[in-house]
Amino acid sequence: MGDVDRRLDEEPDTPQPTTPVSSATLVSSKRPTSAAGMEGGAEIPSSKRQRVQKDTVKRATKTLAVQDGIYAAEKFSDSFFISHVINLLVESDCLWISWIDREGAILSSGFSFFKNLPLTLVLLLLLQRFGRRQWGHIPELTTPNHTVALHPVNDDETLGKDEIVVNFHPEDKVHSSWSLLGRATTVVGANRTAANDGGNTSGGCVEAQGSGETEDGAVGGASRKDPEGIQQTQGGVGKDAGSVEDGNGTGGTDTSEYDPSGAALAEAWRVYNQARDGYREAHGNILKAHDLVLKVSWPETSRPAEWKVIGHAQTLGKGDKFIKGHIPTAKYARDLDRYSTRHIRDFLNLQTAKDTGTRTLRLIVMKRLQPIYDLDGEQFWKAFWQCVACHYRLWVNGIHHGDISYNNLMYDMDEKTGDAVGIINDFDLATWVDHSTTNNDRTGTIPFMAIDLLDGGLDSCVPRLYRHDVESFVWVLAFITVASIEYKDGTIKISPLPGVDAWFEDKLQSHRDAHILSKQLFHSK
Q1: SS3 at position 96
Q2: DSSP 176-236
Q3: Taking CA 408 as the corner, what is the angle to CA 407 and CA 414, rounded to the nearest 5 degrees?
Q4: Tell me, what's the pLDDT at 6?
Q5: Residue 417, Cβ neighbours under 10 Å: how many?
Q6: For each successive 10 residues of the chain (525 residues), what is the average pLDDT?
Q7: Among 469, 472, 499, CA closest to 483
Q8: DSSP H or E run through 164
Q9: Distance linking the first and last C-alpha atoms of the chain
Q10: Distances from the Cα of 287 to the Cα of 243, 253, 284, 291, angstroms
Q11: Is residue 117 within 8 Å of 124, Cβ to Cβ?
Q12: By 3-state DSSP, what share of the chain in percent is helix, strand and coil, each rounded to 5?
């Protein structure tokens, strides 16, 4: 499906070289001896020969860029503690040096390692002396005991000077956004132990709900808004449970398995609920052990820091009941400027005053939350409308979220009442009115964007209005209603079904057109 939770203009299909490749290194020294419309051995005019050389350079450069991107993608996908990738690309007797980080690719001019053997040897000797840091490994995230030091977030929207040690658990991956460029957000479970702070643990935990164990092969996929089994089931329960569905996902009764007593449907719900209870019990145990999360991302430095936006929202919440308790709590944070993408570009004199794409490594620790689509009935609707109300109050107070998606609507359990509380998460793309920024790029999660912004708005000056974010809430609700929710082996998975699957393809204009048409059909109905 690809990474749908990303910046709209930051993921080109292939990395583009920053420094042009020298044409002299790519073209054979042999003169062509034939061409269409010319006798064998006749010389090609100089102007045509130059065009052939330029076309050869262009094709070779594109091939190298694709190869370079594949190498970098393999490295970045391996772990979240890689800051950059260095590649050596070879074509015939020519060598290029490539540097790829979260801002983009830098490709050197090519040179012949036969004609420049001393230079090649010096390069190899230098690379031989590189340590893990020079090859892109981030020492702060590769400690043997998986601990990292951060600073506490103060009430005045600043970071304290004290260093707080937090344990993080790479195997407990809460969220992973695969991408070659961009934020590349990864969220993993974290906690603080007595060894960290002398006995006090931070953050809360959610008690396990329900009981029972997941049966082998038990899967979900039915609508969680229909506990009585009135509506048809979808996805994993499927036709074996007497559901009504066809290949297009539009419904169609399977009379061969029709059960007027409803026993098969009741059994399907029993299996579904047992699988869900097993997930919640397993997830509750994880929450007790890892009650925090560590968010690792590469946001643009031109945007306000997420922990600052959250801190200001917390301040607003002190006097606004619709905000209070409905935004996440940023406990600790740290920006590691030493890994900023501007350093290599400043050194190579590639950065200009107009560039807004510089990215830096940011670490934030927050209380662990749960996805809103795991809720049922009244609990779901209550949490959902709490998120809508909180979003409105933040908007009128100058914080425009701008990235409403099903991954960013969460909930936590009120420890006093036991009720689910809706929380809007992920403010690293939020706009803070009256705070200067040099970045005015369109942002958002494409599957849930308003039609106005999709239909010619991504690359134009269509202003983002409040109604655009409200429309995103509508698309999130539509998606959750028809999506397949699967509980299996203590995990939860949400997948699009026919009717909304077109929202998740955006590589070609035809994909965009199908996406817009699909949403227009929802409007018409």
Answers
A1: strand
A2: E---SSS---EEEEEE--HHHHSSPPPS------S---PPTT----S-TT-TTS-SPP-TT
A3: 110
A4: 38
A5: 8
A6: 39 38 32 36 52 59 79 82 92 89 89 90 93 92 92 90 93 83 90 64 35 34 36 31 31 46 77 82 83 93 90 93 94 94 90 73 94 90 96 95 92 89 93 68 80 72 85 92 80 80 79 82 67
A7: 499
A8: strand 164-176
A9: 27
A10: 34, 41, 5, 5
A11: no
A12: 35, 20, 45
- CB within 8 A of 190, min separation 6: which ones? 166, 167, 168, 169, 290, 292, 293, 294, 365
Please report the pLDDT score of residue 138 as a whole number: 93
> CA–CA separation, 45 vs 39, rounded Å?
13
141-147 CB contacts, 8 Å cutoff, 24+ apart: 141/80, 141/81, 141/296, 142/81, 146/170, 147/196
Q: How far apart are the C-alpha atoms of 201 and 331, rounded to whole Å? A: 12
Q: Contacts for 373-379 with beta carbons within 8 Å, 24 or more apart?
A: 373/224, 373/406, 373/480, 373/483, 373/485, 373/494, 374/224, 374/276, 374/280, 374/411, 374/485, 374/492, 375/224, 375/411, 375/420, 376/224, 376/225, 376/227, 377/224, 377/225, 377/227, 379/419, 379/420
Residue 145 CB neighbour total at 10 angstroms: 7
pLDDT recorded at residue 353: 57
- DSSP labels for 262-304? -HHHHHHHHHHHHHHHHHHHHHHHHHHH--EEEEEE--BTTSP
The pTM score is 0.73
CA neighbor of 31 nearest in space, from 10, 14, 45: 45
Q: Phi and psi at residue 475, in whole multiples of 5°? A: -70, -35
pLDDT of the residue at 511: 80
Chain-centroid distance, C-alpha 510: 23
Alpha carbons 61 and 140: distance in angstroms, whole number: 36
> In the numeric block, which tokens belong to residue 474?
């509508």
